Automatic annotation (TrEMBL), chain A:
Protein name: ABC transporter ATP-binding protein
One GO MF term: ATP binding
Xref: Pfam families: ABC_tran (PF00005), DrrA1-3_C (PF13732)
Family listed: Belongs to the ABC transporter superfamily.
PANTHER family, A to Z: ABC TRANSPORTER ATP-BINDING PROTEIN, ABC TRANSPORTER ATP-BINDING PROTEIN NATA
Organism: Ginsengibacter hankyongi
Record's keyword annotation contains Nucleotide-binding: yes
Superkingdom classification of source: Bacteria
SUPFAM superfamilies: P-loop containing nucleoside triphosphate hydrolases
Automatic annotation (TrEMBL), chain B:
Record's GO cellular component terms: plasma membrane
Keyword Glycoprotein: no
Protein name: ABC transporter permease
Any one GO molecular function term: ABC-type transporter activity
Transmembrane segments: 21-42, 179-200, 229-254, 300-325, 337-357, 392-414
InterPro entries reported in the protein's UniProt record: ABC-2_transporter_component, ABC2_TM
Record domain ABC-2 type transporter transmembrane: where: 19-411
Mode of membrane association: Multi-pass membrane protein
Domain of life: Bacteria
Subcellular location: Cell membrane
Keywords: Cell membrane, Membrane, Transmembrane, Transmembrane helix
Length: 308, 438
C-alpha cells in the first residue's frame, strides 16, 4: 500500500512554476529519496506534503484517503532544511512544547523526550538554551524533536548536513530502526552517495518536473550505458574492432563501452581471439551521482524567471 | 483551539519569566513614585526660612505684618542696610514714611535672591497693610474690617460645573477630566508601541530562527499569529495590573511619609510660582486621592480604558505581526515597513492632545470614531463625561470591526511572509497577497 500518493500536483508562484504536474507514489515502509538540484521545487513539494501550502491543483492522498492537513499532520514529522529552534528557550521545555503542538499529551511527551535524551546522551542539556549548543548538537536535538511523536511518515530535508561521521551514523542507525518499525521516510538531499546507501526508491525532479522515478536498482539498470571493466594479467595491445570502444585504461584494467547490437559475450570473444589474459570482467553501473548530473544537464540547470 | 492555547501559554510564560519584564514591571512604578516623592521632598526642603528686619518709619506696619512659617518679620532698632547680615537677618525692608508718589520706593535689600515667591509674599503683606490703613482712615470699623478679611471663600460656597445633556446631569471638573483623559491617552499610545513592537519582534524572531516552518507544520499560521497576539495581550494586562497595584499601594505609603502639613506648604508655595511645578504636581497627586478623583466618572472610565487598551492593541498588533513576517535580517527594513503603522498612531496622539482639552471639537469626535485613532482619542474624551452613549457605541463597534478586518488582512500577509526568505518584499507584493485566495 502507498502511504502517500501525489496526483498531478501543481503549484505556481508569481514568476515560476515551482511544481508543474508531478505525480508519484511512496510505498508504506520504504525509504524514499526526493532528489533535485537547488530550486527544483523540492521544498515546495515537501511543504505541500506537510500541509504548509495547498497545491493549486492536483490531489494528495495519505494512507489511501484524501490528505487533510489538520487530521493527518500528527502522523507526519518534518525536519526542514533550514533548522529552526527558539534560541532563548530551554531545550527541555522547547521539546515538550513542540511535541505537544503535535498533539501529544504532556505526560507521554515527557516520557518520550527523556527516553530520546538518554539514547542520544543529551540528559544534561535539559535546562540549557539552544544558544549554548554547537551546530551538530542542535541538529541532533532537531532530529529528536522531529521523531518524538513517532510519525508514520518522516520527512527529512538534508538530515546529515553539519554532522560529523559519528553523529551521522548515530542518526542513520535511528533512521533504519524507525524504518524497521514501519515508518516511511522521505529523504531530500543532493548527497548522492547517501541516497545510494539508504534509499530504496527515488524521484528526481528538476524545474518543477519529475525526471526519474523508480527503485534505485531499476534506475541504475535503466540508465546503464553498457560499460564493462576488464582486468588482465598484462594489458593487451590495442586492436581494431566494431564491438567496443576503450573508454579508459588504467594499470592492468580497461574500461570498455559496448557498441549497440553487441553483447558482453562478443567483447569477451574479441579479447579471447586476441589471446589476452583476462582475469576479471564486471559491468559498471552508473552511480546515482552520474545519473543525476547527466539528467539535470539535459535540462537547463538554472531556473529562469518566466511568466506563468 | 487546544493548539492556540499552547501557543498563548508559551508566549505568555516565556515573556513573564523574562528578567527584563520583571525589572521593568517593578521598577517603573517605583521610579514614578520615587520621582514624585523626591520632587515633593526637595521642594519642601528647599523652602528657606527668612527673617526680615523691617524699618517702619510711620509705624503702621508693625501691627499689620504677620509672620508665618517661612517669613518672620521683626522691627528691631539700629538695624540698617549695612549691618542686617551681622545681626542675623536674611533681608532688610525699608519702608518710607509716606506713600504719596511713585517716587517713594519701598526697598527690600538682601545679599542673595529671596525668590519670586518670598518677594510676592512681602508685597502682599505691604498691600494688605496699606489697604487696611485706607479702610480705617475712611471710618470703617476695625472689627468689621477684620471680619471681612477673615472670610474664607471655601466655606461660603462651593464652585462646580455641571454638564447637562437631556435629562442627565453630571458633575464636571474640566481640569481633572482633561488630565485623566490625557493620561489614559498617553498610556494607550505607549502600550500600542510597546506591545505592538513586542509582537513584531516575536514574529521576526520566529522567522529568522527558522522555527516558523517547524511550527507551521504542526499548527496553522493563523493559530500561531493569533496565539502570539493574545499571549502578548495577556502579558500587557498583567503588567498593567501590577503597575496599578504597585502605584496605588506605594503612593499611599509615600503619602503617609509626607505629612499633611508639609503638603500644605508645597501647595501654598506653588500658586505663587505661577506654574505647574513639580511640587504642585506632587501635591495635586497626593491630594487627588481624597478630593477630586471622586468626582470623575470612574465606572465609565475603567471599563472603557480596558476596552480601548485591548481593542487598540488588537487592531494594531496584527499589523505589526504582518510587518514582522515580511522583514528579513535587515532591521532598517523593519523601520521603513513600520512607517504606515506608526503614522496613524502618532497622528492619533496629536489629535488626542486636542481632544483632552476640547472633547467635543469636531476633530475629537471624528478621531474617536475611526478605529485607526479611536483607542487613543476616545480615551481622552471619556473622562469629560460629555460623550453621548451612541458615539461610544459606534466607536466600539467600529473598533471591533476594524480589528477583525486588520487581523484578516494581516493573516494573509503573515502566512506568505513568514516562510519567505531572502527577498525584499514591496508594498505592492503585499497588496497582491491580500487579494489572493488561499
Amino acid at each position: 500500500m502507498n502511504i502517500l500518493e501525489l496526483r498531478n500536483i501543481k503549484k505556481y508562484y508569481a514568476t515560476q512554476k515551482a511544481v508543474d504536474d508531478i505525480s508519484f507514489a511512496i510505498p508504506q515502509g520504504s525509504i524514499f529519496g526526493l532528489l533535485g538540484p537547488n530550486g527544483a521545487g523540492k521544498t515546495t513539494l515537501l511543504r505541500m506534503i506537510t500541509g504548509i501550502f495547498y497545491p493549486d491543483s492536483g490531489n494528495i492522498f495519505f494512507e489511501g484517503k484524501k490528505f487533510e492537513p489538520v487530521k493527518d499532520i500528527p502522523f507526519i514529522g518534518y525536519m526542514p532544511e533550514e533548522r529552526g529552534l527558539y534560541k532563548k528557550m530551554k531545550i527541555g521545555e522547547q521539546a515538550l512544547y513542540l511535541a505537544m503542538l503535535k498533539g501529544m499529551d504532556r505526560h507521554e511527551a515527557m516520557k518520550k523526550i527523556k527516553d530520546w535524551f538518554v539514547k542520544f546522551e543529551m540528559q544534561s542539556w535539559w535546562n540549557k538554551k539552544v544558544d549554548d549548543l554547537s551546530k551538530g548538537m542542535s541538529q541532533k536535538l532537531q532530529f529528536v524533536i522531529t521523531v518524538l511523536h513517532e510519525p508514520k511518515l518522516l520527512i527529512l530535508d538534508e538530515p546529515f548536513s553539519g554532522l560529523d561521521p559519528v553523529n551521522s551514523n548515530l542518526i542513520k542507525d535511528e533512521i533504519y530502526k524507525l524504518s524497521q518499525k514501519g515508518a516511511t521516510i522521505i529523504f531530500s538531499t543532493h548527497r548522492m552517495e547517501q541516497v545510494e546507501e539508504i534509499c530504496d526508491r527515488i524521484v528526481l525532479v528538476n524545474k518543477g518536473k519529475k525526471i526519474l522515478d523508480g527503485s534505485v536498482k531499476q534506475i541504475k539498470f535503466d540508465c546503464k550505458e553498457n560499460i564493462f571493466k576488464v582486468g588482465f594479467n598484462e594489458l593487451p595491445k590495442p586492436f581494431e574492432n566494431n564491438v567496443f570502444e576503450i573508454v579508459n585504461s588504467k594499470d592492468t584494467f580497461l574500461t570498455v563501452k559496448i557498441n549497440e547490437r553487441y553483447t558482453p559475450a562478443d567483447v569477451l570473444e574479441q579479447f579471447l581471439i586476441n589471446k589476452s589474459s583476462i582475469i576479471s570482467f564486471n559491468e559498471i553501473l552508473p552511480s546515482l551521482n552520474d545519473i543525476f548530473i547527466k539528467k539535470v544537464e539535459d535540462t537547463k540547470l538554472a531556473r529562469q524567471f518566466e511568466e506563468v | 483551539m487546544h493548539k492556540i492555547w499552547l501557543v498563548i501559554k508559551r508566549e505568555y510564560f516565556t515573556r513573564v519569566r523574562n528578567k527584563t519584564f520583571i525589572l521593568s514591571t517593578i521598577l517603573l512604578p517605583l521610579f514614578f513614585i520615587g520621582f514624585i516623592v523626591a520632587s515633593a521632598y526637595f521642594s519642601i526642603k528647599s523652602i528657606d526660612k527668612q527673617k526680615i528686619a523691617v524699618e517702619d518709619n510711620n509705624g503702621i506696619f508693625k501691627t499689620s505684618f504677620q509672620s508665618d512659617k517661612v517669613i518672620t518679620y521683626e522691627f528691631p532698632a539700629n538695624v540698617n542696610a549695612d549691618n542686617f547680615k551681622e545681626r542675623g537677618y536674611s533681608a532688610f525692608l525699608y519702608i518710607p514714611e509716606h506713600f504719596n508718589s511713585p517716587n517713594d520706593s519701598v526697598s527690600l535689600i538682601a545679599n542673595k535672591q529671596l525668590g519670586v515667591d518670598a518677594e510676592q509674599k512681602v508685597k502682599d503683606q505691604i498691600n494688605t497693610a496699606i489697604r487696611n490703613k485706607a479702610f480705617l482712615e475712611n471710618n470703617i470699623n476695625k472689627k468689621v474690617l477684620d471680619s471681612i478679611n477673615n472670610i474664607d471663600e471655601d466655606e461660603l460656597y462651593k464652585f462646580s460645573t455641571v454638564i447637562k445633556q437631556g435629562d442627565k446631569t453630571q458633575q464636571s471638573n474640566s481640569g481633572l477630566s482633561s488630565a485623566i483623559g490625557f493620561g489614559s491617552g498617553i498610556l494607550i499610545y505607549m502600550t500600542l508601541f510597546i506591545y505592538g513592537a513586542a509582537v513584531m519582534r516575536g514574529v521576526m524572531e520566529e522567522k529568522m530562527n527558522r522555527i516558523a516552518e517547524v511550527i507551521i507544520s504542526s499548527v496553522k499560521p493563523f493559530q500561531l499569529m493569533a496565539g502570539k497576539i493574545i499571549g502578548i495581550a495577556a502579558v500587557g494586562l498583567t503588567q498593567l495590573l501590577i503597575w496599578m497595584i504597585l502605584i496605588v499601594g506605594l503612593s499611599s505609603v509615600a503619602s503617609s511619609f509626607i505629612s499633611h502639613d508639609m503638603l500644605q506648604h508645597a501647595q501654598n508655595m506653588s500658586p505663587a510660582m505661577g506654574q505647574a511645578g513639580a511640587n504642585s504636581a506632587a501635591a495635586n497627586f497626593m491630594n487627588a486621592k481624597n478630593t477630586f478623583l471622586e468626582a470623575a466618572p470612574w465606572s465609565l472610565i475603567i471599563p472603557c480604558f480596558l476596552f480601548y487598551f485591548i481593542g487598540g492593541y488588537l487592531f494594531y498588533a496584527a499589523l505589526f505581526a504582518a510587518v514582522g513576517s515580511v522583514v528579513n535580517e535587515d532591521p532598517q527594513e523593519a523601520q521603513s515597513l513600520m512607517l504606515p503603522i506608526t503614522m496613524p498612531i502618532i497622528l492619533s496622539f496629536v489629535i488626542m492632545t486636542t481632544a483632552a482639552g476640547k472633547p467635543d471639537a469636531p476633530i475629537s469626535v471624528w478621531g474617536s470614531m475611526i478605529p485607526l485613532s479611536s483607542p487613543i482619542v476616545m480615551m481622552a474624551r471619556i473622562p469629560s463625561g460629555s460623550v453621548p452613549a451612541w458615539q461610544i457605541a459606534v466607536s466600539m463597534i467600529s473598533l471591533v470591526a476594524g480589528f477583525i478586518l486588520t487581523t484578516m488582512l494581516a493573516a494573509k500577509i503573515y502566512r506568505t511572509g513568514i516562510l519567505l526568505y531572502g527577498k525584499k518584499v514591496t508594498f505592492k507584493e503585499m497588496g497582491k497577497w491580500l487579494f489572493r485566495k488561499s
